[in-house]
Each structure stands twice: as structure tokens, then as C-alpha cells.
Amino acid sequence: MHDFPILDQTGTKASADALGVCAWIKHQRMAIGMPKRTLCTTASVARSSLDHYEAGDVYPSVPVLVRIAAALGYDLVLRGIAPERTESEAGYIQPNAS
User: Fold this and answer.
1) What value does the mean pLDDT take over residues 3-32?
2) In sequence order, what are the residues at sequence separation of 6 or more whose Cβ sits closer than 8 angstroms to the Cβ of residue 86?
3) What is the pTM of this model?
4) What SS3 class is residue 77?
5) What is the mean pLDDT of residues 78-93?
6) What pLDDT band is residue 39 in, cutting at 50, 70 and 90?
7) What is the DSSP secondary-structure string of 2-51?
8) Rounded CA gap, 26 and 91, in Å?
9) What is the DSSP code (8-state) at residue 68?
10) What are phi and psi for residue 62, nearest 5 degrees?
């Protein structure tokens, strides 16, 4: 299980820790040998957007991250955040059960 902070719906750079999401996308894609074109098609993401995500220039919105994770064989698990909890407790990405 990988713990990453969950970003807001606009994909705004929430914190420096969020860079882990971008690095994870690139790492997982390369680890399974998936070309960018395939990930873009499968996740319905523009190539220019994926380039920016992988470079850490911008962060994917939650709906986009859900599609990217699914295309890479993972489920994005979201949890509610109580005020006393930290961002890192907000959710995680796990291999999907199928």
C-alpha cells in the first residue's frame, strides 16, 4: 500500500508531499512497461497533461487520479478527513482486486 495525500478537485498543488503522487504515476507506468500513449488512452488523459503530472508541474484532480490508478491496475481509496487528522491519512492507492 502506498500512502499519498489526496489533492483537491482542481488539482491544485496542495503540498510538497503531493509530489509523491506524480512520481508514483511515472514509476508505476515505467515498472509495467506501459507507454505514455497507452496510459493516456486508457485513462482518457491528454498526453500534455500526463507529461505535466509526471514532471510534477501540476497534480491530477481526484477523478483523473482515479482513472490513472485504474489504468495502472490500482484502486484509489478515499477516506474522510476529520480536522485532527493529517493529509497523509486521507487515502491511499492499492493494487486492485481483479
Assistant:
1) 63
2) none
3) 0.67
4) strand
5) 55
6) very high
7) EE-PPPPTT-----GGGHHHHHHHHHHHHHTT--HHHHHHHHT--HHHHH
8) 19
9) H
10) -60, -45
Check whether 34 has a pLDDT greater than 90. Answer: yes
Structural domains present in the chain: 2-95 (1.10.260.40)
Identify which of 14, 7, 17, 23 has the alpha carbon closest to the alpha carbon of residue 65: 7
User: CA dihedral in degrees (10, 15, 18, 22; nearest 10)?
Assistant: 70
CA 34/CA 18 separation, integer angstroms: 23
Whole-number Å distance between alpha carbons of 71 and 17: 23
Q: Is 12 exposed, middle or buried (0-12, 13-18, 19+ CB in 10 A)?
A: exposed
